Input
Amino acid sequence: MADRLAPSPIHWHRLRCGTRFEREFTYRAPSLWFAIFNWFMLRARIQLESDTAVLRLKSLLEVAPQR
Output
């Protein structure tokens, strides 16, 4: 599967209330079964992992001493 996964650059945008980071994964579904499984299970899991990572990073940055 690693050979089907395209590089996914991280894009960021400055907002008035902070910064928005975006990362897009592009890959081919090798079968209809995988496409259905991806839609119902993998996408939600990847989003949950991403949300958790952002919250952990935010909490680390908020408690870090300011320089």
In short: The helical segments are 32-63. The longest helix spans residues 32-63. Strands lie at 10-15, 18-23.
